[in-house]
Amino acid sequence: MIRKWVKSGDPWIWLTASAVALSLIIVGGLLLLIAIRGMSHFWPSEVVQYTYTVPGQTAERAFGEIVDSELTSAEQLRALGFEIAAGAGDVERILLKTGNRDALGTDFRWQIQPYISELRYPSELLTIERREWGNFYGLPRSLRENGQTVAEGDAVWSELRQRLERAQDLYRQIRAIEKGEIGAINYQIEDLRLQQRKLELRQALTDAAKAQLDGERGELDAEFGKLQQRLQDLYKDIGRDVLVAEIMDGRQVEIPLAKIVRVYRANQLGVLGKTGVYLSRLREFIFDEPREANTEGGIFPAIFGTVMMVLIMSVLVTPFGVIAAVYLREYARQNLLTRIIRIAVNNLAGVPSIVYGVFGLGFFVYFLGGSIDQLFFPEALPAPTFGTPGILWSSLTLAILTVPMVIVATEEGLARIPRAIREGSLALGATKAETLWRTILPMATPAMMTGVILAIARAAGEVAPLMLVGVVKLAPSLPLDSNFPFLHLDRKFMHLGFHIYDVGFQSPNVEAARPLVYATAFLLVLVIVLLNLAAIYIRNHLREKYRALEH
């Protein structure tokens, strides 16, 4: 009976189904773990206050967020110099985020549970997220304007919220002027310098041309001076308000409101209040720029760079892959040479990605980019324009890395098209080129999109080659902006995969960076899924459109 059941093939069906189900469970569990550990980071935690007393030392007050706890053996703690009662088993220790790194030197510390007493959650404790030095935890004491106290005690909170909104509005104005208007003027001044240098190299810098350039430069300098004056006024205005708060060692610290991103009393927040803070922090994470060595703030430049690089790579890889596949399937003679080429294409998919990065650096950046600078941008030399890593070379490197996938998928799609369709088209008087362009390629489009989907899935997660040909820790400006020619393919960019590596392994503040690694990894998965879903939608639409031709 068992032998008959085995011969029927049912066991292999169940085994395959079980393997697929187990794989889905593992992948789903991994994504769930990443999502929980990453997204829970943005939920505001309550701030605890307690007394920490180490035997033989003076008791000290501590407050902050409890972010983790673990059990440690008493013997291990005794070896580290802690006094633990005899006969004690495992002892709990907690990781407290004390913040206030500028005042305390560190913003995380492990503390032993038996040394903790008088634990409570004061409602007046403030959680302040700053633009520099990380979080601040303290008790509000006063609010000052130009050195004069304007609020003390309970009145500080209501006055603080009003003045903070004003300070943040001034900060946004300053950022708009610095990155927008002044950035555009600097770009135009540099363009005028390059124009003058180009005329000098061509020996065509006449007095009239120089006068015109000087006139345009003078107008830009005058406009720049006006913006500088506006900035000085805004900086003077934004620096007038200062919050005075008491930290856990009793010192009073001044915090300019211009340095504050967000402030709330975590111990007074209800579910709706915490949800509001959570959504605000999540929005900041997705749409703002990073700060504090990428351990705080947002990752929008990395999202933008990843998506743009994948789109440019897709535009570059698709025609090369399709043309190569069409030649191999429709025009090349099926002989030994063709078989060797196919073997080489398949083997290219197994080459380590870092090898492509070295090739891209040597050929694209140094050889091709350096040649382009010599021919088209001599006025900018010795500063490179395209002879340095950038988003164009990164996209080309990944296009070469992924082109075998497009070739193989397109070839398979062309091979599935019935020969009768080709012969019918030729019999009706169409040429081979017309048959290929009007009939064969449209029917093979879903297969091409399958290759592009596979290419996107691999390229979006690659990191090693990008470290050599364009990706950086922090890019000063996006590759796309309002300055002509708008899309700057020579610029370096940020990437989600490299951001994960940088935050996880290069961060000076490991404990603060750990939850952001999970959050960024989860966001990278979402970006890849969205890109693939868009490509799958296009493929399915094309498949339905040309289904009638197959019948």
Produce the secondary structure layout.
Layout: H1 2-7, H2 10-39, E1 48-52, E2 60-73, H3 74-79, E3 90-97, H4 101-104, E4 108-112, E5 116-120, E6 126-130, E7 135-145, E8 148-152, H5 155-201, H6 207-238, E9 241-246, E10 252-256, E11 260-264, H7 271-287, E12 290-291, E13 296-297, H8 300-331, H9 336-348, H10 353-376, H11 391-416, H12 419-427, H13 432-461, H14 466-469, H15 496-505, H16 510-545, H17 547-550
Antiparallel strand pairs: 1-2, 1-5, 2-3, 3-4, 6-7, 6-11, 7-8, 7-9, 9-10, 12-13
Task: Provide an overview of this structure.
The chain has 551 residues and is an alpha+beta fold. Among the domains are: 139-263; 300-475 and 482-550, MetI-like fold. The chain has 17 helices and 13 strands. The chain has helices at 2-7, 10-39, 74-79, 101-104, 155-201, 207-238, 271-287, 300-331, 336-348, 353-376, 391-416, 419-427, 432-461, 466-469, 496-505, 510-545, 547-550; strands spanning 48-52, 60-73, 90-97, 108-112, 116-120, 126-130, 135-145, 148-152, 241-246, 252-256, 260-264, 290-291, 296-297. The strands form three sheets. Strands 6, 7, 8, 9, 10 and 11 form a six-stranded antiparallel sheet that branches. The model has no long low-confidence stretch (mean pLDDT 88).
